[in-house]
Model the fold of this input.
Amino acid sequence: MNPAVSVGPTAPAVSVIVPVRDRRQLLRRCLDGLAAQTRADHEVIVVDDGSSDGSALEAEADSAAGRPVRLLRTPGIGAVGARRLGVEAARAPVLAFTDSDCVPTPRWLESGLAAIGAGAALVTGPTWPDGHTRPLERSLASDGRDGLYATCNIFFRRDVYSDAGGFDPGAGARFGFRPGRVLAGTGFGEDSLLAWRIRRSGARAEVCEEAVVRHHVFPADPVESVRRAWAAGAFPALVREIPELRQTFLVGRVFLGGPWRIGLYVGVAAGVARRRGWAGAGLAAWALWRGRMSLAAEPSRRRALWAVPADLAVDALTGAALVMGSVRHRSVVL
Done:
């Protein structure tokens, strides 16, 4: 156990670390979800990373109301740095991470701590959208078994976290993200790298089905959709460092993106080979399959007139980014 951690009679059983930047209303929902936990022996550390919308006031309000919430402030060091700062301030022998755009279900802490108490060093659980997701809307859906270990829903024994070196603040740069570029400062891959370092050390990792988090559904933002689609080109670099992801996440999820994207790749490859018949058939199959899925998720037929074609364009860009990333990083994600 980390000797720097206070474990006296007043120490919490778990420290929950929540970075936030300009998400005041979402943070309010997150803090209310943490206040409703069935385990009360916890502390919440909110790290306000340079917010300008008053997000810090929500944490201050909870602290003033007697909730176990502490506030740290930074001038804007990015989510990875904010989480590391939260760990330094944490007092518990177990670290839990969630995000300001998430609401943990009431038994989240109880379930995660039970798994840690049963011998796990690392625990994750399902993260589901907090409502229906339409084309171009953004949320997160994971059963916890994809091998990515997203920081919106993860628990660590603190001694194991420290022994593994914690989150690498330079991980994003290793995968091609630089200041001012796509998703710079939000982090990429540092959570996956840390979790797999822990797993490779022989420590036990578990998926706890009861440790559920609900992720906010963000409204359609075509510009953000394009940015994130292009950022998918970094996944081949991630799988180069974590080849285990070929079995847990990438096959059928990212590179193929589901069976419909096979048609896209076949169509493009056939086009390069000047096989127009095959190219047309492949692209038509992709557009029909993906288009039907998008249309089924869009209840408004008027909105579908632009949302479905835009969703097809974003899916095509994602496929292109993954192919180019595979070439660039010399790591085919199949």
Notes: The chain has a mean pLDDT of 89.
